Model the fold of this input.
Amino acid sequence: MAQESLPPPETRGVWYHCGATNLLPGQGAVYCGPMATYCAWHRPLAIYAAEPNRTFFVYGSAGNRPTISYYDHDSGEWAYPVVLGENPDGDAHRNPTLLIDEQGLLYVFWGAHGHPTHVHRSARPYDIGDWVEVAEVEPDGGTSYPQPWMLREGELFVSYRKAPGWRFRTSTDRGESWSEPTDLVTFGVDENARGAAEFSVYGVTVAEDGPYPRAVHFAWSRLGGGSPEEIENKALWARRYNVYYAYSDDGGETWRRSDGSPYDLPITEETAEKIYDSGEHGVWIKDIQLDSQGQPYILFLDAEVETFRATWKVARKSAVGWSISDVTESDHMYDAGALLVFDDDDLRIWGPSTAVQPHEDGGEIEEFRSTDAGATWRHTRSLTSNSKWSHNHVKPVMGHQRGPGDVRAIWSYGDSRKPPETDDVRLYYIGDGMDQGREIPFPPAPGEADE
Done:
């Protein structure tokens, strides 16, 4: 496809690659490809808002610019995307996340990955046309993966990685200022690493909706470990270990283990509740969602960086503790899917578990379904098929249970090889009544339709 024939950059996604060690034969990077909706630690990315009956979503557009659009469920139309800023490079770790407050004001958090997190607030409720830049989160930098929620009335809550740990801040003035940070997790120093490197945390959060205060649930893994020889040989490239868990039901004041016992902050590796021990394998957490009773389900991959082979697993909380169930296998630890709770007896996983470009991240999106609260899973359908390139980084619409099912999830599509035949990345979606995912049909740019 010739470059001049491509649609406008704001309607396309960022192509990105990462990792130059521990490669399989024929690879140019550990993971690469369509990253408009990357990564698992960027959340929420899409939110259904009942008052305007719209699903708002953010993504990294071509050139890695933070971009927002929406789908209007009444008209059946997609809004032309609005670009909010410029990132200094093509690093998809700077992709945006989204929050909507009680007044309908939209907040977009973007530009992190070791930098300050920029925050833009919409000038009007449910309107993407005009924006105000408010206070940065951690102006001195060092933030990654901002995950914003509304846990208490009138208060913005955002948690994020501040290497090596995880922390959060709050705002009671619509993002004009932020509280002093609270360190939630810090796992100390890996004495085997060169320079005694600090352990890093990779986490995912999800908040309940309904009356305040709302509970927030947090699952995370640890980067770092192994012998000095393995580290020197880079055999453990970016391997994360184990799955840990905490929650707060009072807006972040108190954090607890799943049995209700409180943590002292910051949570250390010695005090953290480990719900899955990965041994010498790695763990890549992909999603966390809640059922109607507020019980968490955590989707993750247990994978080995020497082969990239990954087993998809779900950790589920019940009255008797944690259970782990297997779902399927795939050929890359960066195959990234989503868990959707249609009902307590209807759980779905939508993920790229069938390879299109072998040993590259992404593939065909498959559906796996559980009707017994996550205990067992079966393949029920393929959401994409006969694709030339790879689909990846499926993101569910938060609040989809309350709204219409026209748009349940969005994801990225493009070439996952390096160098790619094309760096053209498209955005896809799926909703109820659709057998297959479809490319989002963005309208012509304003003014073009009349030319």
